[in-house]
């Protein structure tokens, strides 16, 4: 049996991604790596006004308000949602272009 040795060219460092940039990208993907958060983004984006009150998001997810609020906070911290306080309620809106920016941050590096 002979070993195939076609893979002799080492990868080049033409794509520069420092550890801090990699950590930022990972944080964004980690925020999206939960089915409830994906559902929240989808529900909010589908609303006519492109916003939703936390009180309207608990029932569709079948989760309690504290759990939904936690998921929303993660999405706000990751830059996918904005939060506006109105009286005792918080309203969340999708940040336009946040998802494409996350994915483009990886692919733009290969175009350099």
Automatic annotation (TrEMBL):
Transmembrane segments: none annotated. Keywords: DNA-binding, Transcription, Transcription regulation. Residues 17-112 form the HTH arsR-type domain. SUPFAM superfamilies: Winged helix' DNA-binding domain (SSF46785). InterPro entries: ArsR-like_HTH, HTH_ArsR_DNA-bd_dom, HTH_MetalResp_TranReg, WH-like_DNA-bd_sf, WH_DNA-bd_sf. PANTHER family: ARSENICAL RESISTANCE OPERON REPRESSOR, TRANSCRIPTIONAL REGULATOR, ARSR FAMILY. This is ArsR family transcriptional regulator. The lineage of its organism: Bacteria, Bacillati, Actinomycetota, Actinomycetes, Micrococcales.
């Amino acid at each position: 049996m002979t070993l195939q040795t076609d893979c002799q060219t080492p990868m080049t460092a033409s794509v520069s991604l420092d550890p801090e940039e990699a950590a930022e990208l990972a944080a964004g993907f980690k925020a999206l790596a939960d089915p409830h958060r994906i559902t929240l983004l989808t529900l909010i984006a589908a609303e006519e006004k492109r916003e939703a009150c936390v009180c309207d998001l608990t029932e569709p997810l079948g989760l309690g308000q504290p759990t939904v609020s936690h998921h929303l906070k993660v999405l706000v911290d990751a830059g996918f949602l904005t939060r506006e306080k109105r009286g005792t309620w918080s309203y969340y809106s999708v940040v336009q272009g946040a998802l494409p920016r996350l994915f483009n941050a990886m692919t733009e590096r290969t175009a350099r």
